[in-house]
Amino acid sequence: MKLTFQQDALLNGINIVLKAVSNKTTMTILECIFIDASGSEIKLTANDMELGIETKVEGTILERGKIALEAKLFSEIVRKLSSAGDSLITIESDEKFTTTISCEKSVFDIQGRDGEEFAYLPYIERDNYICLSQFSLKEIIRQTIFSIAPNDSNKMMTGELFQVTGNQLKVVSLDGHRISIRNIELKDTYHDIKVIVPGKTLNEISKILDGDNEKEVLIFFSPNHILFEFEDTIVVSRLIEGDYFRIDQMLSSDYETKIVVNRKELLSCLDRATILVRENDKKPLIINVEDQEMQLKINSSFGSMNAEMSIHKTGNNIMIGFNPKFLIDALRIIDDEEVALYMLNAKTPCFIRDEEGKYIYLILPVNFNAASV
To answer: Which residues make beta-bridge pairs with 89?
Structure first.
């Protein structure tokens, strides 16, 4: 095999597939990037058996072939070969898979592996799918991914529900303390779909997408896998098996207090409050709503903060406590100038939602001692 590339093009392809290289495996072939130039195109692939990424790279095929190269070593060599991104890189391997990577006056010889040993991406039927813009997918991930669970003590909570009904896509995430729901309208009507996509997969896809509103993403579904196809890249991931939580039973339209407040003003106030809170500090933010004013108070070992804001309130006065981080996370990804908070009492969830139903954020309150407030 003998190939030539512009350094920038090759490095971009390597960076895309590196996200699927396994770093915890006893199968050393999964630590490799597979270069397939057996046809008319050059493809780079990485696959950790849970997540697989394949991308096409522009280059010239002088001799066809396949090779698997240790990913970390390969990426470091290409990255450091030249400071000029338009430099020409040549990759050549022999029948024993000894591989020479050269650029200008630098030459590296490394040992590759037989490309036939590499685990190809699973085949996915292309009949069950949806289509949306890169911008929409990147946004819907950004607006929900923060509320998945950080560990797999409950596997369901490490993924997101993708539910298609007609021309509507609903994406849901939760971590036991909060729920994020985003609804978007698709251009076409599709078969009903309900799957759980790993958060790791969505995180990596979000990093690859450029977010262009004019570019589309095709998402294909099979019983065990999901495939994202956009531009020159394919991402295949295993789905999380099982039935997702019954979200509708957790949602309620009942409320005794509705607060409408300027989003940026509330967010700034919450940011100031968290100056006094360290990562493992569980001191709640106390919100006291009286008439058309909202008081915010927090006490920690570093000090205390009190603030007041003007609001528009309908319904009852209320005093309720929250983890301020959960409020901040939700408010940061809402674009509306004003937000509406709906509360029933100090023991039930607070809902942040819009009138059109594009987003719903549910946040559980925390207990506090009212006498110390």
So the answer is: 5, 103
Nearest alpha carbon to residue 166 among 183, 184, 186, 189: 189
Closest CA to 290 of 178, 354, 373: 373
Residue among 197, 207, 193 at smallest CA distance from 172? 197
Q: Give, in order, the Cα–Cα distances in Å from 62 to each of 11, 81, 105.
A: 19, 21, 20
Query: Given this model, what pLDDT does residue 84 score?
Result: 67
| Tens-place pLDDT, residues 128-139 | 999 999 999 999
Mention every residue, 6+ apart, whose C-beta is less than 8 A from residue 166: 189, 190, 192
Question: DSSP string covering 64-88, please?
Answer: -EEEEEEHHHHHHHHHHS-S-TT-E
Give the residue among 34, 40, 43 at the shortest CA–CA distance from 112: 34
User: Does the pLDDT value for residue 181 go beyond 70?
Assistant: yes
What is the tens place of the pLDDT at every residue in 256-305?
999 999 999 999 999 988 888 876 777 889 999 999 999 999 988 888 88
Q: Could you tell me if 147 and 352 are in contact, meaning their C-beta atoms sit under 8 angstroms apart?
A: no
Copy the structure tokens of residue 65. Answer: 């072939």
pLDDT of residue 371: 41
* Token duo for residue 134: 């890169």
Q: How many helices (H) and strands (E) does the chain have?
A: 6, 24
3-state secondary structure of 117: helix
Q: How far apart are CA 225 and CA 236, in angstroms?
A: 7
